[in-house]
Amino acid sequence: ETGVTQSPTHLIKTRGQQVTLRCSSQSGHNTVSWYQQALGQGPQFIFQYYREEENGRGNFPPRFSGLQFPNYSSELNVNALELDDSALYLCASSLGGAGYTFGSGTRLTVV
Amino acid sequence: EDQVTQSPEALRLQEGESSSLNCSYTVSGLRGLFWYRQDPGKGPEFLFTLYSAGEEKEKERLKATLTKKESFLHITAPKPEDSATYLCAVQAYGGSQGNLIFGKGTKLSVKP
Question: In terms of CA atoms, which chain B residue is nearest residue A43?
């Protein structure tokens, strides 16, 4: 059984640019959540997708958006990057919201 | 407001020196409390889920317990490979779907 895989592992972007991060969920999992983890902090919930629809969202602005595809993989898109967006972005998959398995994350640096 | 507070922020132990990490939580209705281990630059690795007060779960040198206000992660005779940041998270009934609320974590260092 494969776990959650995220790509890329590291990324450097310039302020104002746009970025897309990708996540493949664990086999059999139909729900994907995204989290932002700043250095020295716990992960913060961005949003969750189930059956290709966003069904939960944290306190993040609309420039954070996402997609879920029929194979349950997912993308996180961030527009108009700001310096404070620099963080580890984590994807977690679950079966119907029970038991979350996290990927290793994408380290985004905005300069 | 639902929130999670972990203490201490950092803990240094000698190999074999048992101790406990604390997770205090405030939540409108607890759906589940989760413990994760996180190594530097990696994603959180699932350890335990607890659902109701009085519940206990064990895995190797780790034991998690839950009361109505807090959870403890007991580490018995730790080894250097137990060094990591331990994260506690809660999920509330009625909260935004999928929303795990995390504490800031306890960074554990175990010296040989």
Answer: B102
